[in-house]
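S1.2 Input.
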Amino acid sequence: MSSTNRITKPHEIVERALGLSTADGCVVIADEGSSANLRWAGNALTTNGVTRSRTLTVIATVDGKEGTASGVVSRSAVTADDLEPLVRAAEAAARGAGPAEDAQRLVTGTPASPDFTDAPAETSSAVFADFAPALGEAFARAREGGRELYGFANHELVSTYVGTSTGLRLRHDQPNGTLELNAKSPDRQRSAWAGRSTRDFKDVDPTVLDAELAVRLGWAERKIDLPAGRYETLLPPTAVADLLIYQMWSAAARDAVEGRTVFSKPGGGTRLGEKLSELPLSLRSDPNAPGLESAPFVIAHSSGDDASVFDNGLPVPATEWIADGHLNRLSTTRHTAGLTGMQLSPGFGNLILDAGGEKSLDEMVAATERGLLLTCLWYIREVDPATLLLTGLTRDGVYLVENGQVVGEVNNFRFNESPVDLLSRASEAGRTEKTLPREWSDWFTRAAMPALRIPDFNMSSVSKGV
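S1.3 Output.
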C-alpha cells in the first residue's frame, strides 16, 4: 500500500491537498462530521442511528495581470485518491474565472491550533445516556395524561480543519444539539410544541418539556375565534430568535450602502448610529459566550456579501451589533469593509439579545391585561427588503390572555411585520435565555433571547393551519 493511500486523517488530507497545489494560493477546509439521533411518535421510539460524513473544500487562487481569481470546489466522501483531481478542479475553476472582486491577501499570522493534528471529535448514541431514560419517563407520563408525544433529538459534532498556503493550521470542534417535542391530543385537534438547543443533552429534560406542553394542551380545551387585527402580543424567545436571525442575515454593510436594505438611509448612506429601540437593547455575537460557543475564526466555503473565501482563518471578535438600542455595526468582510469604510465585522456564529429584563415569560403573562401569547412562528418569508417586511404563520398554539391568565386557545394567524420595526415598538423585554429558533433550526441554533411585548403586533389575516 502506498503512503498516499494511507492518508486518511483530516490534517493529513489538508496537508496533502496543500502539497499538491500549484496555484499561487490555496485554502483547504476539511469538515469531519458525525451525528446521532432519536425519533419518536405516539409515545414510543421509532428510529435511531449514527452517521458520519466528510467534506473537503479546496479554494485555489491565481494571480493575473487584472487581479486575483479564485476557484472553489467541494466534494463529500473524499479519499486520498480523490485529492489530486479535486485540487486540479479548483485550480481550473480559478484559471477559468475572472478576477475575484473580493480578492485579498490570504490571512497570515494566526497561531496554529494545538490540536490540529488530533483525530476529529465524534458523537455517538452515548450522548443520550441520561436523556433517553428521561424520555421514557416522559412517554409514561404522557400516556397517563392522555396525550401523545412526537419529535426528535439530534446531536451533531463537526471538526473543521483549515489549512492555507500562507501557513495557517486551524481547527474548531462544533457540537450542536436540538430537541423538538410535540404533544398532541388523541383526536389531533390540539397540538403544542417546545424546543431546546444544547451542546451535549445534559441540560435538557424532556419531562420538564412534557409538563409544559400538558399545560398548553389544557389551555387549548377552550377554543376562541378572533378576527385579524393588531393585538398586544407576547413573543417568546424562540419567535424573537427567528425574527432577529433573519434581520442579521439582512445586515450586510455593502447592501446597506448601496441602498438595498432596511439599514439604508433614504438619500444615501446607512442608518449606523440611529436609535432602533427605546429599550436598552444589546444585540451581540461572541464566539466565547458560555453555552453558545462558536468558531473563533472565519470559516468560509464560498464568497458572498457577508463572507469571503479570502478571509478564511481571520479572527472573529465579540461584536455588538446593536448597543443601547442604537445600530452599532453592520457585517463586513475585509473587502466590503474597504469598500464602505466601515469597521471589519466578520460574520456571526451565535446571537444574543439582552435588555436587562428580569421577568420570565410566565411573569410577563401575569402582567398582561389582554393580549396574545404565541408559541412559535414558521414559514417566514421576506416581502419587502427595503423595510425587511416579513410574513409568516403562527403555529402550535396561540393563546388569549386576560387579566394575567390564559383563558383559551385562539385561531392561528398570518402576520406581517418587520423585525426592525418590532424593536422600535417593543415596550418590554423579559429575561434573556438560551432558545431554539424553530424556523431556522436547520441553519442556526446558537441563540439567547428574551421574550418581547409588542403592543400592536399585526395579525394580518386568519389562518386555518395548526
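S1.4 Remarks. The longest strand covers residues 44-64.
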